[in-house]
Amino acid sequence: ALTDHRMVRAAACRALGAIGNSDSIVMTALSNALSDADPAVRSQAARSLGGLGMQWPDSVPALKTALLDESAEVRRRVVAAISQIPNSLAATLTELVMLLADPAVDVRREVVTVLGKVDHARDAIVTALAHSLSDPDSETRSRAAASLCCFGVEARTAIPQLAQAVRDTDSHVR
Question: How much is the pLDDT for 37?
């Protein structure tokens, strides 16, 4: 029976993820929970889907929709979940790059970290990460620089922005 108590629903999502079964009943329940009225439930559903992602890549469309969630914590969890699912970054790249302008700093931090793991459309990602080197948040700038390291010589177009980052006033970025 369904309950109106959010803590029970969130715990059920956590339990479904812990069971580690990619059964369609489990995946449907977690995908549906991404639309729950409570952000804690949606956040836990995203986390569980990410954990099961290797077994159930069909959860990507529901997660892609959840990237637009009103809750910053849910958006951050969804970005993290997507990064755990093989080939999902290709399907969500446009949305992820758009989230670099998210008003929530934790979302931007998660996105710049995840973009360092992408193995396609590398020129576009390098450009987006180079732009993130001017983010108002120093942690986001630092993570963007670290993600650019993952691209090696392919990140050479970001040299001007990286050279500017060397002079960043925050020692965490330099």
Answer: 94
